[in-house]
């Protein structure tokens, strides 16, 4: 399936018909740079490839033929799912130079359309909660996350998680 978009600046397409990640024409170094520059998170390109390969659904946004950069990936997202009840959308990222042009919305909408489950969860980058709310996502009051020590410290520093109030009833 291809979804196309056009803004004042660029033409782009969502690509989601990738059946073999090894045969897909994806520059994984470029993907790592996209996420680092979005800015989201820095991870090695081999880890991004492994994560996308293990995902239930993936989508990329590529530039249409224009400016001599045909096919360059400027957005990516993925989801994991049990195929029946639950799914989680992960790593929605758009190149910083192409944000606010409908690309993130197209990626999330594409995944939601293909995830035939009762509930779809996601975590938001700091400051992006309003974007997901506008797409129909609701804030959860009963969700918890487990983080390994390194990522836990980073998430606490970014204000994405907070320690439980062990004296109260909110744990």
Q: Could you please describe the fold and organization of this structure?
A:
Helices cover 27% and strands 23% of the residues. With 171 residues, it is an alpha+beta fold. The protein has a single domain, classed as 3-Layer(aba) Sandwich (Aminopeptidase). Strands 1-2-3-4-5-6 form a six-stranded mixed beta sheet, sandwiched between helices. The termini are far apart. 23% of the residues are buried.
- End-to-end separation: 43 Å
Record field, number of beta strands: 6
The CATH architecture comes to 3-Layer(aba) Sandwich
The Cα radius of gyration reads 17 Å
- Uncertain ranges: 1-8
By CATH, the topology is Aminopeptidase
Strand order of the largest sheet: 1-2-3-4-5-6
Strand content: 15-25%
- Biggest sheet character: 6 strands, mixed
The portion of residues assigned to helices is: 25-40%
Write down the oligomeric state. Answer: single chain
Shape call: globular
Number of domains: 1
Mean pLDDT, rounded to whole units?
83
CATH superfamily: Gcn5-related N-acetyltransferase (GNAT)
- For the record, the CATH class is Alpha Beta
H/I helix tally: 5
Question: How would you summarize this macromolecular structure in one to three sentences?
Answer:
The chain is an alpha+beta fold and 171 residues long. It is built from 5 helices and 6 strands, in the order E-E-H-H-E-E-E-H-E-H-H.
Topology, pairings included?
Elements lengths: L1 E5 L4 E5 L12 H10 L7 H9 L3 E7 L9 E9 L4 E9 L8 H12 L4 E4 L6 H6 L14 H9 L14
Parallel strand pairs: 5-6
Antiparallel strand pairs: 1-2, 2-3, 3-4, 4-5
Helix pairs in contact: 1-2
């Amino acid at each position: 399936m291809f979804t196309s978009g056009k803004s004042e600046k660029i033409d782009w397409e969502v690509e989601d018909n990738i059946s073999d990640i090894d045969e897909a024409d994806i520059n994984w170094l470029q993907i790592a740079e996209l996420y680092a520059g979005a800015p989201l998170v820095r991870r090695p390109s081999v880890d991004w490839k492994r994560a996308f390969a293990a995902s239930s659904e993936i989508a990329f946004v590529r530039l249409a033929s224009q400016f001599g950069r045909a096919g360059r990936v400027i957005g990516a997202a993925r989801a994991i799912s049990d195929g029946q009840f639950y799914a989680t959308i992960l790593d929605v990222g758009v190149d910083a130079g192409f944000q606010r042009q409908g690309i993130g919305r197209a990626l999330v909408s594409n995944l939601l359309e293909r995830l035939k489950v009762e509930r779809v969860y996601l975590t938001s980058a700091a400051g992006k909660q309003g974007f997901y709310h506008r797409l129909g996502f609701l804030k959860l009051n009963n969700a918890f996350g487990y983080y390994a020590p390194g990522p836990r410290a980073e998430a606490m520093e970014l204000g994405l998680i907070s320690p439980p109030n062990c004296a109260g009833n909110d744990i």
